[in-house]
Prior knowledge:
The protein is mainly β. It has a single domain (about 20-315), classed as Tachylectin-2, Chain A (5 Propeller), CATH 2.115.10. The chain has four helices and 24 strands. The chain has helices at about 1-10, 90-105, 145-155, 265-270; strands at about 25-35, 40-45, 50-55, 60-65, 70-75, 110-115, 120-125, 130-135, 140, 145, 165-170, 175-180, 185-195, 195-200, 205-210, 210-215, 225, 230-235, 235-240, 245-250, 260-265, 280-290, 290-295, 310-315. The radius of gyration is 19 Å and the shape is globular. One of its GO terms (molecular function) is isomerase activity.
Amino acid sequence: MRKALMALLCAGATPVLADAWPELTLQSEHPVEGMRGANLSGLAMCQGELWAVSDRDDDQVYRLDNRYAQWHAEAVGFDAPPVPESGLPWGVRMMGKAFSPLRGGDLDLEGITCDEAGNRYVVSESHAAVLQLPQVGSPSWLKIDPALVRQARASGMLLHFNALFEGIAVNPQGNQIWLAAERERRGLLSIRKKQSVWDCEESCVLMSEGGPEQPPPELKVKPQQKDFADLALFQGKLFTLERMAYRICRRSPDTGEVERCWSFARDGLTDARQYNTRYGHAEALSLDAGGAWIGVDNGNHVRADGEARPIVWRFAAPQGGWSAGL
């Protein structure tokens, strides 16, 4: 560790310490009406419109009407074909199937992203699969090389039920996808499209890490497992939403190495905005030059101020923009 810090200092860089993360400023918050299953689990800005996905719905995504302070979710339906085998072991798949009646859906959609052509992609956590929703035509599951799941599990990821893929990002050209493994261990992976199959370059795994992390003091809880809740690609960089730490981190798209982080704990954990639970609720992330949209999945819990609907927060971009410090 000492050698790594010395190398950074010699290169003229300043290591970003946890207690030095700058705070983002909340500009507005918006309750969302009209999500059938609630549980907002992913956000994406697609051709100027903000889209959302719920992990309780298997047959629709949502276009968010944000013209008013109280937003409305407009459902856009689809019929997903049967899910292909991804290489998940039998036990993990059966746990997902057993819990699907309680969850309200089989697919457990946890993230949404889109390319510059307007094609949307949603990731199914329970099946470790990616569904493409094209502008024109029928939805189809991407043909992903089973090496993705095999390499992830060899690196300690995707070993536990409900701790699989939690976020997704695609490049503008629509030929490279990044996936975030949630926890125990968390990590980042990448696949590229080669003709009709999506597979790895040299390795699918960019990074993998585990271990506990102390949440912000406002939560008043013990250390929790490091996690990723969502993933976004902006200005050629990956941005991870780290739920228990209440932060956004900019990372290298090639290695997953963290470059800079920003906290949203100060405004996101005021007394009125807290839930009576031991875990974080920030589940969805979308970035633009002006700031970040963060979706809050309340999981049917009621906030201290009585708010029971999903929430979307708008945080201003940090001073110097998201590329600050490069």
